[in-house]
Recover the amino acids of this structure.
């Protein structure tokens, strides 16, 4: 039995039987100095729990390992196992992602076999969905160079169709002075539309559509999407930017 449990047992005997502390401690096997000691751990643990809950609200897609790194950076001298135990006790966990709609585009190169070998070899495209505080939908188009891991564009609007996607690609090409060798993307309706297919044909750019339900075949832009959500979309900074009607774009 731990000292904390023996302490509670002594208190219970005193309250129920009306015996002295000395007698209760002797019966339970608790040292009287230990019984009278008031540990500071519960208050410290309570503050740490509050910090973990605040961290989870600010970064709902981060787990206990990143929470441990954050509280350590904030000055807490705690190990990872303690943070993991409190994280589980608080019922904090990363929500599961919803599955995307299954569509099928025609690839000129299999996505799982294509590896970027130089800048502008493979551009990865993907969309993100969010909502503003008034409940209206928000859509983001992210374009990443897979070789340099550079974010070529983060286009934000209420609605982004195939024509808007092509317009973003045109702006990137005008800025960089070159077209990609391949475009890697999923099978969403905007990315299988004739507008993008014609753009790829005229730019002599190949398409590498990932298999339906296989986001791991487009890992770099998926990873970028996660960081963007954690570090921007789920923060108060992005809400203030929306209030100021600011659109993010390369």
């Amino acid at each position: 039995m731990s000292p904390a449990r023996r302490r509670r047992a002594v208190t219970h005997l005193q309250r129920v039987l009306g015996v002295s502390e000395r007698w209760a401690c002797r019966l339970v096997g608790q040292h009287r100095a230990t019984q009278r000691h008031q540990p500071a751990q519960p208050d410290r643990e309570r503050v740490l729990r509050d910090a973990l809950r605040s961290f989870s609200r600010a970064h709902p897609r981060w787990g206990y390992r990143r929470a441990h790194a954050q509280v350590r950076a904030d000055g807490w001298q705690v190990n990872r196992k303690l943070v993991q135990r409190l994280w589980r006790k608080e019922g904090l966990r990363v929500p599961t992602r919803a599955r995307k709609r299954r569509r099928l585009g025609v690839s000129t190169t299999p996505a799982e076999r294509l590896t970027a070998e130089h800048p502008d070899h493979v551009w990865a495209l993907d969309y993100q969905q969010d909502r503003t505080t008034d409940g209206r939908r928000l859509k983001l188009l992210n374009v990443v160079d897979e070789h340099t891991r550079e974010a070529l564009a983060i286009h934000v609007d209420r609605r982004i169709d195939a024509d808007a996607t092509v317009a973003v690609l045109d702006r990137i090409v005008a800025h960089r002075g070159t077209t990609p060798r391949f475009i890697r993307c999923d099978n969403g309706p905007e990315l299988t539309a004739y507008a993008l297919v014609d753009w790829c044909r005229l730019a002599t750019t190949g398409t590498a559509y990932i298999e339906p339900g296989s986001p791991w075949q487009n890992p770099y832009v998926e990873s970028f999407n996660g960081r963007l959500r954690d570090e921007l979309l789920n923060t108060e900074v992005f809400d203030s930017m929306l209030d100021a009607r600011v659109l993010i774009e390369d």
